[in-house]
Amino acid sequence: MPRTIKIAAAQMGPVHITSPRTEVITRMLSLLHSASSLGAQLVLFPETAFTTFFPRHLIASQASLDSYFEHGDNLPSSPNTKPLFDAAKELGIDISVGFAERTEEGEGYNASVYFSAEKGAVIAKYRKVHLPGSKEPFENPDAVNQLEKRYFQPGNLGFKAFRTPGLVAGAAKKGSEELGAGKGDPIMGMMICNDRRWAEGWRIYGMQGVEVVLCGYNTAGFAPDLWGTRKVMTPEEAEVDAVFHHKLVMQSNSYMNSCFSVSAAKAGLEDGKYDLIGGSCITSPEGHVLAEAKGKGDEIVFAEIDLEDCRQGKEKTFDFERHRRIDQYGLITEQTGVVEPELLP
Ligand code: CDV
Questions:
Q1: What ranges in the chain are assigned the alpha helix state H?
Q2: Atom 5 of ligand 1 has which residue's CA nearest to it?
Q3: Phi/psi-derived region of residue 248, left when phi > 0, alpha when psi is between -120 and 50, beta in every other case
Q4: Could you give the CA distance from residue 43 to residue 95 in angstroms, rounded to a whole number?
Q5: Beta-carbon count within 10 A of 343 CB
Q6: Where are the domains of the chain?
Q7: Could you tell me if the CB of 217 is within 6 A of ligand 1?
Q8: Residues 103-126: tens digit of each pLDDT
Q9: Short-list 159, 72, 59, CA closest to 110
Q10: Does the keyword Hydrolase apply (predicted)?
């Protein structure tokens, strides 16, 4: 039986350091309404969607830094973000959105939430595990900094998949007669930007039967200080490569875990200077791109997907129960860095 969902990535053009929060929310509402007019049931917004991607800046004042953060559990009620959640509830659309989270204890996380329109509540939260960059800025004054390790703690909620109510008709529930994998409410997982480059998170979601992975991102188009300069590239060549790598990891990891993925970028020249790639896309369990952004501005990327399409991979090529060999995978959790084989005599 088909289990279809109409799904959208809300790509956002640049959000500048000077952009008033109200202006950003207005743009997000406009994207939500556009997605609604296409019949979307779920809309994904980018990483740190409500503000500029501030970890590129060295921010000295605590008050200024705090202005980029929200209290995680208050998003649906905070004046800065409430209008988006109110509209999602009113339109009956689930949303997932990235934000900088400040906890009661004062810790900072690069986080995202999943809001269920049916429940009228946040039903899942994710904190970015793989924080790229450094604590200190680069010495090169022209470098694009990536100070996530300075402002955020590594995520501590793991990669926990969750079910999303109200999206597919006739979903099996606890105690249903129609039991078995692939019959219940959709299984989703969230990751944030750099996480998508790491196979480990995808596999942990795959092992929970994930059907849709949601990933918001801010990826620089040209950042040689961060990436290395072994191959000298023009900014244009570097951006082509960055988009290639983005799609490569979304497509290959969707395939290897037999799931759909949705990715939503913040794109364009943020703060008038820092180029972010676009390339928001929706990929299938066979690794194909089903829909993708055409430009680098505010744009809805939309597809109707059938979760039943996950079954073939999950039951054949990537039937984990039959084919995985965990006795051979020990190094994955025993060792963090690389230990090369001994040198030859
Ligand atoms: N926001 C990010 O996590 N950006 C990283 C860059 C810095 C490599 C990314 O993986 O796109």
A1: 21-37, 62-66, 82-91, 148-151, 199-206, 224-227, 235-256, 311-315, 320-323, 331-334
A2: 194
A3: alpha
A4: 5
A5: 5
A6: 4-334
A7: yes
A8: 999 999 999 999 999 999 999 999
A9: 72
A10: yes
Tokens 């790598």 correspond to what residue? 245
Pocket test for ligand 1, best of 194, 225, 245, 247 (most atoms within 8 A of CB): 194
Q: What are phi and psi of 78, to 5 degrees?
A: -70, 135
pLDDT at site 229: 82
Say if CB 238 and CB 224 are below 8 A apart.
yes
Q: Among all residues, which ones are annotated catalytic?
A: 47, 128, 193
Q: Beta strands 4-11 and 299-306: pairing type?
A: antiparallel
- Other residues' Cβ atoms within 10 Å of the Cβ of residue 270: 23
The CATH superfamily assigned to 4-334 is Carbon-nitrogen hydrolase (3.60.110.10)
CA 146 / ligand 1 centre spacing (Å): 8
The closest residue, in CA terms, to atom 4 on ligand 1 is: 219
Kindly report, residue by residue over 314-344, the tens digit of the pLDDT.
Answer: 999 999 999 999 999 999 999 999 999 999 9
The Cα–Cα gap between 72 and 55 comes to 18
Both tokens of 235, joined, read 């900014």
The CA-to-CA distance between both ends of the chain, in Å, stands at 61
The dihedrals phi and psi of 181, each to the nearest 5 degrees, come to -65, 145
